[in-house]
Amino acid sequence: MPRLQFTGRTKFFAVCETGAQNIETLLKVIYELYTDFVLKNPFYEMEMPIRCELFDLNLAQVIQKDRVTLLGR
User: Fold this and answer.
1) What CATH architecture applies to the domain 3-71?
2) Which GO terms fall under biological process for this protein (predicted)?
């Protein structure tokens, strides 16, 4: 299962079909969204579930917009 871990305890992983390409790129984009919309949110507390509407909206847009390029479909 593809996963990406940066500093701290937060890990991102993707459930995908075998042989899916560019998953690491997708995980890096998700991490960028996480740093932009979650970590910079003054109301977010580390180790708590991510509840950030802007993160959710932007994540959905990235997945829909770049599904073909990121996942090779």
Assistant:
1) 2-Layer Sandwich (3.30)
2) endoplasmic reticulum to Golgi vesicle-mediated transport
In angstroms, the Cα distances linking 9 to 20, 46, 58, 61, 64 are 26, 9, 22, 26, 27
Task: Tell me the pLDDT tens digit for each residue of 47-71.
Answer: 888 899 999 999 999 888 766 665 5
Range list of H helices, the chain: 23-33, 53-65, 67-71
The pTM of this model reads 0.74
Domain boundaries, the chain: 3-71
The encoded tokens of residue 13 equal: 């992983």
Label residue 7 by pLDDT band (50, 70, 90): low
